[in-house]
Write a structure and sequence with these properties.
The protein has about 220 residues and is an alpha+beta fold. It contains five helices and nine strands; from the N terminus they run αββββαββαααβββ.
Length: about 220
């Protein structure tokens, strides 16, 4: 006999793996983020670089999707996309974005808010060249976020791009509509799950050229 599925409101987990205090944090949020990212990678989490990217249109309508982090250094957080996609258009309109990492197995989140810039063309070129050939061809073939009649229509575009670029010694060049974005952080929150929903939340806020850290109520 099949048991009835539990009601969504009854699904709960009590977090108990770790704690987080100011004494645990690096002075710089990028240093702290890279520490947590290293721990997520060493824990062999699935897709540790996956992050939710939230944008907003000129009309104030938000949208969100999962993208992959491809770089994190003293400048901020880097990912790559089609500049003409919905996310690309919205990043161009507002020039602000928010990122969220959720490492379920470690009971951790990181939330980032910041200003958006395009990375230098040479940096986008270098990353594009490092991608698998099929992914580079796909960047030429797919009109990202635009309506397309069928899967067959998409694959026909892929075949045409392959015929055009697949025979080149170095493969296809980076298309002008594709490249990297840099999120320059203004606010970075580190969240560690705790029992009874009394989570630890420590936030870095950029102030006067440095970083101020505060604890937030859960």
């Amino acid at each position: 006999m099949n048991m009835p599925a539990p009601a969504l409101a009854d699904l709960r987990k009590d977090y108990k793996l770790a704690s987080l205090g100011k004494r645990d944090l690096a002075a710089d949020p990028i240093v702290q983020f890279n520490k947590w990212m290293d721990e997520a990678i060493k824990a062999e989490l699935p897709e540790p670089t996956a992050m939710n990217l939230a944008t907003v249109s000129a009309q104030g309508r938000p949208s969100a999707r999962i993208v992959l982090l491809k770089g994190c250094d003293e400048r901020g957080f880097v990912f790559y996309s089609n500049y003409e996609s919905r996310k690309g258009r919205e990043l161009g309109e507002s020039q602000w974005a928010a990122l969220t990492f959720h490492w379920v197995e470690l009971e951790r989140q990181v939330r980032i808010e910041g200003h958006v810039e395009k990375v230098p063309a040479a940096e986008s070129d270098a990353y594009f060249k490092s991608r698998p050939l099929a992914s580079r061809i796909g960047a030429h073939a797919s009109p990202q976020s635009e309506p397309i009649g069928s899967r067959e229509a998409l694959m026909a575009r892929v075949a045409a791009a392959t015929a055009r670029y697949g025979i080149l010694p170095d493969g296809p060049p980076r298309p002008a509509h594709w490249g990297g974005y840099l999120i320059v952080p203004e606010r970075v929150e580190f969240w560690q799950g705790r029992r009874s929903r009394l989570h630890d939340r420590l936030v870095y806020m950029r102030q006067f050229g440095g970083w101020h850290i505060e604890r937030l109520a859960p």
